Amino acid sequence: MADVTDTSPPSGRRPTLRDVAARAQVSFKTVSRVVNNEPGVSPVLAARVRTAIDELRFEPNAGARSLRRSDGRTASIGLLLEDVANPYAASVQRAVEDEARPRGVMVFSGSLDEDPTRERELVRAFTARRADGLLLMPASADQGYLERELRAGTAIVCIDREARGLAVDSVITTNMAGAAEATRHLAAAGHRRIAYLGDRPGIPTAEQRYQGYRSALEGLGIPVDPALVVQGPHDVASADGTATALLTGPTPPTALFAAQNLITIGAITALRRLGLERRVAVVGFDDFPMADLLAPAVTVVAQDPAAIGRLAAKLLFARIDGVAGTPTTHVVPSTLIRRGSGEIPAA
Amino acid sequence: MADVTDTSPPSGRRPTLRDVAARAQVSFKTVSRVVNNEPGVSPVLAARVRTAIDELRFEPNAGARSLRRSDGRTASIGLLLEDVANPYAASVQRAVEDEARPRGVMVFSGSLDEDPTRERELVRAFTARRADGLLLMPASADQGYLERELRAGTAIVCIDREARGLAVDSVITTNMAGAAEATRHLAAAGHRRIAYLGDRPGIPTAEQRYQGYRSALEGLGIPVDPALVVQGPHDVASADGTATALLTGPTPPTALFAAQNLITIGAITALRRLGLERRVAVVGFDDFPMADLLAPAVTVVAQDPAAIGRLAAKLLFARIDGVAGTPTTHVVPSTLIRRGSGEIPAA
DNA sequence: CAGGTCGTGGACAACGTTGTCCACAAGGAT
DNA sequence: ATCCTTGTGGACAACGTTGTCCACGACCTG
Predict the structure, then answer these.
(1) Which of A27, A110, B100, B315 has the fewest CB atoms lying closer than 10 Å?
(2) Closest CA to A342 of A239, A261, A258
(3) Which of strand D's nucleotides are less than 7 A from any protein C-beta?
């Protein structure tokens, strides 16, 4: 970028059907037939056309193609995630890609950062490019604005959270059941003072996990202590802060349920600093890398992001292929993985 | 997907320039002028057109647009990574996205899995969609086949590894210097038997890191012991295996230099199992999540994937904007982060 | 008041492709 | 020998947009 001289504009046009036709001495429509494997071209001509295609390294223009085609398909989909750099989202993305690859479908991706405005912008950008379908991890409170896209033929499937105000398929995990299981698991180790550390209530998954926590306590006859419930932290630093405050407060918990992976990491950081990592039990929702190598290793309710991504992609492609039927919410089960931190007994 | 009834085909065409024109009672060319902010439309008409656009929620067809436009731009780029689920790649992707967003450019991404065939397939898929540029983490031994794309006007920048057989900008890290620094750091703690655990030699970064290891040892007058050099493992499991073999062998090392993040994790897993994590020193190349929460915390030579992604994207957009100048390799420095595992002294 | 300029808006072609239709030659059936 | 089918290949329009050009009326100048 330093030495800007701009001598030669990038020349060299890409070959078109006409260039191939000229070289193979046929009409350009014949080339189109060969490219699309349509019948009605003699083997001799087809071979001539094919060598011309190879020699020129002709590649049909996808834009022109989808413009003219009757179905208008672009063989591309949009993937809207909370943050592509988050390991959960990255696993989902990889699974979606693996599902799209054999179909020749390319994946556009973008990060929403829990920003509703950003969700709308990215949807616009993807629909302007006429993506055949959208895989969405909703950031806004209502997806009703997507109704029009749905009617215009864009398939939509939601991931991780159900769509609201829009009838589409969703793929989510067992948030409530998983959170309840985690809570009961801590209670089974003798804990009565189990804290809840979770995302802000506006996020549906956070809401469901909180409900799971509450219902488990109620089922056990343990009252929910508001002083042990923190809803709000979203990243490692803030979770660390609130966990520290909780643990150094007047009536600290003996166990923590951390309702999201970054919050789990923040809580563990706090426990370490306070030297409590072997005395206070922890169960996290969402597995995370290295959880098994920490000391103590971290007990988690693991989601299966690869399965979620795969299933969501399959549902999307089915819709793109014209499969009808009422939209359904599909639930991928979570699994409790005992590693040590969740089995620390109450003092 | 269970109940396939396919009652209503998704109807509802998307509005076009003509639909907007009809509603605003102007010619469709006038609408085009408004959409593209061209001069020559009276404010009254422009306002009428704009309300029609809003009412119909008109969105110009990106495909048709780039087809007709003189520059042929699609406002999209392709990002070809080793594996989108790898944390290093995920950080790069996020940085690229952040750089592309304000320009209104969308990002296609795909995983190569070190497969040269896959590299070619994805390049084809992206160029068929007429991506304006390609950001590539090379998987194949030679990128000469991209010469034609370059001439056809597709900008290309390589990430993590320099392109071979192709004159393009590259953004890489200080592989050799970083590896040498890691090696010297271990030697400074008194180690003489420092093992090298790295990727297979075909990968340029692995090659450079190995050279850094060798040159550091030579500079210190320590002979390179072939029995302490392992080149090959690429994932956690195989690294665990080779590290275990090395550590339980006849003349085990007292320190390990792990030349890649997955290999570092495998080595640490092995040390844990053998109960050696506080006796054998480890320095890894590439930072990884949780490295600071392990016990002992892991000393690493950290790359800066966000900076690499940002710079690569900036270079790519500069090329897309027509900036000429000879292609350059840009080097983003790595940093040694002392956390404990690398400061364990020799027995 | 004639002539030129300017602001405004529309007609038309083109981008590269696919879908529809038709022309032409070869072959079989009547 | 004539008709019809079949196989083969091309002409043409259309997808939704942008670029070029021109027509029209209003305004200013001489």
Answers:
(1) A27
(2) A258
(3) 7-12, 14-20
